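Long-time lurker. I teach an intro course on protein structure, and each term I like to show students one example going from raw sequence to a predicted 3D structure in token notation. This year I'd like something fresh instead of my usual example. Would anyone be willing to generate the tokens for the chain below so I can use it in lecture? Attribution to the forum is fine with me.
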Amino acid sequence: MASSDPRIIYIKQDINIGPYNNFKFILDAANGSFFMWLAADDYIIDNDYIEKLLYEILTKNLDYAFSNVDTISENGSYLFSGVHPSAKSLVSEYDFGMFSLKYCSSHQFYGLFKTDCVKDFYKYIEFFTNNKCYNEGLFVHAISFYLKGAFISNVKKAYRLHDANMSR
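-- Reply from a regular --
Happy to contribute to a lecture. Here you go:
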């Protein structure tokens, strides 16, 4: 995608600086109005993913928008959408979409943001950079409380579940 769109800049580190140092490096290098991270082992399912999220931000005056997430196996086969199906018993079906992405995972972290908003809230990630996993949890809760965002159910990204996931 970066080779076909001059607005996208691909930067590869010479050495592995770890996920959170890399998240910060990329965020500091950002100079556009909108920003998003994408984990190396995840991928965007819908070709119009960014356009759909951007449309919601612009038309509803949001600070960020995030998508539905399909969890796939290491070999790419579909496992489930949102969070593990056993979590559905915790809340009503009406609330499940927001609940699943707000409390059972941190997929908002990989949403599309107004760049100034994500830069203002990155401090919530830095508080927990020594954690083995879920460092983005406080960030997700802070943006959910202080910023105006939306869960966009009709667009998806894929989260690849494998033995090397930090959260495993």
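Some talking points for your students: DSSP finds six helices and six strands in the chain. Helices lie at 19-29, 49-60, 93-103, 115-121, 123-126, 137-146.
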